[in-house]
Amino acid sequence: MRLYARHHIISSALTGAAIVLALLLLGTATGNISISLKSNASEEIAAAEDSSQAAEISDEKTSAVKKTAQSEQDSAVVNGTKTFTENTNVAASSINTNSSINNSVNSNPAGYTQDEIQNISVYEKCNEAVVNINTQVMGMNWFLEPIVQSGGSGSGSIIDKRGYVITNVHVIENATRIYISLYDGTQYEGTVVGQDSDSDIAVLKFTPPEGTILKTISFGDSKSLKVGQKVIAIGNPFGLERTMTTGIVSGLGRPIQNSNNTIIRDMIQTDTAINPGNSGGPLLNTKGQMIGINTMIYSSSGNSAGVGFAVPSETARRVANELIQNGKVNRGTIQAKMYQLNSLIARYANLDISTGLLVSEVIPGGNAELAGIKGGTEAVRYGNRSIIYLGGDIIVGIDGVGVATIADYYSLLESKRPGNTITVRIHRNGKDMDVKIKLAEK
Which residues form the catalytic set? Predict the structure, then answer.
């Protein structure tokens, strides 16, 4: 679009008027001119005049705006502090209105998902309370001289600001020295407060410098877990300190036999990646609470295959408290010698069942004898050295849960204390019967 100055517009109007006048003269001579031409010409002249007036008004407005701006600028300079115009105040108001949105965006500048924010929160809350445990063991050199060798390694969790650490028994097995490394690289020598092979739980202690404030991990409620619930593991797989992996609860209440041939009941199964070095580390819920102690995996290669197991926090908390208070776990027991039945013994003794615990002998005056449980009377050699007595009662259940093996027996009494009364189902002369027994100290 082209712009024309005022003199151009006036010149064009005069030229148009001359043309119209010439046409009028010609029309008078011929009589063929249309009146509409006059009308169009007059409209063109009027338009030209309007354009000229508009141009004048525009020039005047421009001048007025410039004068106003200059006046405001002068006023601002004179007043010193009053330098913001009304438009500036409006802009500031707009910024204030959007400040909450900007703050919300700045709080999550990377655009993390809710799941990622949850993972980050748990890691930041708990990772400094996860320790790396390394051991030294005694070995022999080529000259059969005792030497100190590097032992195993694993993970642990600080559960008390005094320096108590919970881990697995097999992490510190046969250790002559134990070293506990914290998140900041500091290392302390640890001592064994107590260990319980039946649950694979051990408690260590180290003494930090005075004034040191340790981060701890609290126990959660493993009894409220559901299959499918998200869980998080933090540990030191392959020596990679404080590595986090995530997964879900794959199963609950799993009875798993440990390296001591003891069945640990109610184990938590998870698909969270657990590798060598993760043992003893925490299994966490999304609140950052420890709901299990990572203990073992099922794998043909020794590495994670998506089937890991953790001791539930209900067991770990109870055992840890007893180890800290007493240095050991006091469990109740039945005062009798028992052997696990098998098909060979069942055939030899002409028994009608082949599973359960055969009561070979009862301790005179013990709780089994007082409860009316009977031992055997027929002595036979079992294996190379053992002598067992046949003809006694067979224990087939405790508190309504079946007992088929010696591991079942120990696992059912794992949470029982001396003085507790249990119901024992025995098989005698082809029939089952229940008796009450008050447990003695193991």
Answer: 170, 200, 279
Taking only the tens place, the pLDDT of each residue in 161-183 is: 999 999 999 999 989 999 999 99
- Model confidence pLDDT, tens digit, residues 265-278: 789 999 998 888 88
Distance (Å, whole) CA 375 – CA 335 = 11
- What does the alpha-carbon distance between residue 404 and residue 406 come to, in Å, rounded to a whole number? 7
Alpha carbon distance 114, 261 (integer Å): 43
Question: Which residues does residue 243 pair with via DSSP β-bridges, in sequence order?
Answer: 235
Beta strands in 363-419 (DSSP E): 378-382, 386-390, 394-398, 401-402
Q: DSSP class of residue 275?
A: -
In this structure, what are the phi and psi dihedrals at residue 187, rounded to the nearest 5 degrees? -130, 140
Classified as helix, coil or strand, 65 is helix
Name the DSSP class of 140: E
Helices (H) and strands (E) in the chain — how many of each? Answer: 9, 22
Phi, psi values for residue 383, rounded to 5°:
80, -150
Q: Which residue has the tokens 């003269």?
A: 25
The Cα 242–Cα 185 span in angstroms is: 12
Instruction: Return the residue matching tokens 């794992």.
Output: 414
Other beta carbons within 10 Å of 370? 14
Contacts of 378 (CB under 8 A, 6+ apart): 389, 390, 391
The amino acid present at 278, given as its one-letter code, is N
Let me know: does 432 contact 425? Beta carbons within 8 Å: yes
Which structure tokens are listed for 157?
């969790």
> What are residue 362's DSSP bridge partners?
336
Residue with the two structure tokens 């067992």:
388
Record the pTM.
Answer: 0.64
> Residue 382's beta-bridge partner residues?
386
